[in-house]
Structure formats: structure tokens, C-alpha cells
Amino acid sequence: MHGSRGRAMVILDDLLEMEGVVAAGEFADDGRLLNDRSKVQMSEEIANDLASFCASVTSQFRTLASVMARTTGMYWLPLRGWMYSGGDWAAVIAGNRGVFVEGSKIDYTPILNALLSR
After folding, report:
1. Of 10, 51, 89, 118, which cross-links 27 as Cys (Cβ 3.0–4.6 Å)?
2. 7 lies in which domain range?
3. CB 24: neighbour CB atoms within 10 A?
4. Contacts of 7 (CB under 8 A, 6+ apart)
């Protein structure tokens, strides 16, 4: 592999090696799935839906951050990332890259640090 796609895949492979991470992906602002890696069986449809979901939530948080910055005068931008945890699963997203983690196995700190450092 070479170029930006090759580098993206190396990053996703590195994220996938982290404790509890079962899937890692990269998505465009418009919700298209750019790259993904998974340790579990995941259909293309599910991977595309997850990319669309992550892009949508990220867009909502960017809007929230803009409104909060404008109305409070506090520094809310740029958006660096977000997390969701519910049931047995968690999602950790930074920029346009994220991972899905088994909730009982998650240690947010190393995962967030790895995502933010890329």
C-alpha cells in the first residue's frame, strides 16, 4: 500500500490492535465510508450506515459548538471529537476517524489519545 489510502489503512490497523477495539473507520464529511477495518463480520451496508451516522453526529456537534461559542463567548471550536457509550458498546470519534469498542473493555484515555494524535 502507498499514498494517503495506505497511510490511512496503517492507522486503522494500529487502532484495531488496541484493547477492546473491534472496528475502526474513516469517513467523509458527507457520510461516505472512506476506509474501514474490522475484527468482526460486518456487512458493507452496516459499515456504510456507521460512517453516515458518525458524520451526522459529528456535524451536529460542530453546529452545537458553533452555537455555544457564539452565545457564551467560550472557546468551543474546533471540534476535536466525541464519545458515546450505551449497552455493550461504545464509539470514540476524533475528526473523521473513529473506533467501535466493546463497552466493558474500554479505557477511553489511550483510545482517545491514539485518535487525536493521528
Report:
1. 51
2. 3-116
3. 28
4. none
Domain of residue 65, CATH code: 3.30.450.30
Q: Are 82 and 55 in contact, with CB atoms under 8 Å apart?
A: no
Q: Compute the distance between CA of residue 27 and CA of residue 67 in angstroms, rounded to an integer.
A: 24
Tell me how long the chain is.
Answer: 118
Q: Can you tell me the distance from the alpha carbon of 115 to that of 64, in angstroms, rounded to the nearest whole number?
A: 21
The answer to whether 46 and 72 have CB atoms below 8 angstroms apart is no
Place of cell 473523521: 96
| Strands laid side by side in the 89-94 sheet | 33-38, 21-27, 97-102, 89-94, 81-86
How much is the pTM? 0.85
Cβ proximity of 74 and 6 under 8 Å: no
Task: Determine the pLDDT at residue 96.
Answer: 95
Q: pLDDT tens-digit profile of 27-66?
A: 999 999 999 999 999 999 999 999 999 999 999 999 999 9
User: What DSSP character marks residue 77?
Assistant: -
R_g over Cα of the chain: 14
